[in-house]
Amino acid sequence: MGKEIQGLNEAYHILFVAVLVILAIMIILCLIRAIKGPRVADRIVATNMMGTIVMVIIAILAIMLGEGYLVDICLIYALISFLAVIVLTKVYMGVYLEKKQKEKREE
Questions:
Q1: In b/e form, how buried is each residue of 48-76, taking b as 16+ CB within 10 angstroms?
Q2: What is the pTM of this model?
Q3: What is the tens place of the pLDDT at every residue in 59-103?
């Protein structure tokens, strides 16, 4: 019985490592989109997606390492990421509306 559980733990470990590698590749692709993105909206969505992927990575590490405090860090990171996206959106909307009003005045 102990040998079966050990094999299952090794399989889970391999699965977690594979998922972490895939998520790391996804973060790199999102970073490219955030830098290169043709529009500001694409950059904001890519930034939000990177935050979500980082939260998933922290959650997987919490399970892998068996550390409960990482779940708390994940929740705090979720709040900070959410607030960052809201601030970026507000700033973008303010710049967009200001530009639109300036164009209206010029006409």
A1: bbbbbbbbebbebbbeeeeeeebeeebee
A2: 0.81
A3: 999 999 999 999 999 999 999 999 998 998 888 888 888 888 888
